[in-house]
Structures
1.
Amino acid sequence: MQRHVRDTFVKQSRYQNYRSRAAFKLIEINDRYRLLKPGMIVIECGAAPGSWTQVIVECLHLKPPDCHKTGAVIALDKADFAPIPGAICLPKTDFTSHISQAKILSALNDRKADLILSDMSPNVSGQHDYDHEHQGNFLAKIFNGNQTEKLVKDLSRIFENVRQVKPEASRLDSTELFILATGFKGRHNNEEIL
Ligand SMILES: C[S@@+](CC[C@H](N)C(=O)[O-])C[C@H]1O[C@@H](n2cnc3c(N)ncnc32)[C@H](O)[C@@H]1O
């Protein structure tokens, strides 16, 4: 009980420093897997309002005045967000557009990324039916083989519809196949897939 009270207090006091409580998700994952280290080049997609970026800046020691010279975080979001000291912020940058990808490459400045993080999610309207219809889809090319059936079965657990698509433009003698999954249903906590 005492520990719970102490942890809650610590969390609350830390919360004051972050732009949103999403920070704690990254803190928890990083505590478990030790992903973020000084000197790393990190690309962070879906960064607004910026609490993950704040955590990354801390862990990479990019925070002025103890800025680490070799590391960097490139934080982008299609929405606008206020700059975070120590981070390279790219607001109004939609990850899916070519222009944005060129912006990211330019910010990388010939460096290679050590870690790519994404907390991207579509904006929800609050209307369940609408959001349900507009939830995530997935399209990926695979080479058809003995694991295709398993992949389709695994995806069927988390998507309403899973189709195997062979476009006419794809050569018949090629094993190339596309898996299209629509209507993301979400996952239960700790559910193992794929
Ligand atoms: C849950 S929020 C991220 C919160 C953030 N990790 C934090 O700690 O403050 C999800 C973000 O993904 C962004 N997003 C969704 N699709 C995107 C895209 N195609 N390109 C860039 N950002 C995107 C949204 O604008 C939204 O700000």
2.
Amino acid sequence: MQPKLKSKVRCTDGEVGEVRRVIMDPLSHDISHIVVGGGPGDVPERQVPMGQVQAVTEDAVSLRLGMGEYATLPAFKRDEYVTTHEVEIAHLEERIHVTPGEVLVPFPELEKSVKRRTFFANFTHAIGFLIGFPLAFPVLRYLMKPMYSPFDNEWLKIGNSGKIKQDDVGVQFKYKRKIKEAYMPEQEIDKNVWVLKATPKVLEAIYQGKDMEFRDSFGKHIWTNKKDVPYIAFSGKCPHLGCGFKWRTHKTLGQVFLCPCHLSIYDAAGKVLDGPAPRPLDPLPIKVTATGDITIIDMEFKAGTKAQVRIV
Ligand code: FES
């Protein structure tokens, strides 16, 4: 039985409050902690790991702890979590049975800097407006010309295949890329891709019997990934909304790519197994030399669309 909201919470030597919230592990979809509050005195809400729960009945949760030990548990930090109203979790109600009320999941690492990013985005817009408004159209067009330049199809070296020890296992390669956006000075940004040495079964799932061609915005052929070359590189951005994803072990699905933002799950071939992602992971052009050096063309695609639309 899972703990219910408002159930009384008892230590071995007395009552300490009631269940105020539950926290879900975003990987296993199990309850990882209960948040207990409303006890005697002005005590903060505390976060109790499920390992300290001895028994759960219809209306009470018994802990293995005494009240002294309970008082040493960490206070609950609300701003480190988001509710399942704020993040979309597919089939939540089939996995967790706490009604009614709030289920929390840890705030995705990648989103922790959102306020800062929003500030810089707004700041850039304001500066852009102030600069752009008094200028005549030709000047503006001159300033924005780089936005209309063709995609950069340069090959970038990202590492060596010696880093990949096992077939069908995602390995992350990090690299830096120089970006020039509109009137902003050129900057170097951190990027990553996931590379797999794929078995024939996974290659077949990716290529479905056909080589994969890449073309530029004018339709000119750039490169062909051959269907029998075992190395495959996936863009490090989730096709749902562009978050970074990880290679993880899932309780029932085994090893998968998992995106923590809205819990999209992909298999080793990049196919969507669960979650809101509208399309599979995006393969990139890849070359591997005889000495194992891996180069890719760094491409980015529009997030949230079923069709793959290149934007960088
Ligand atoms: S960005 Fe939403 S699931 Fe990855």
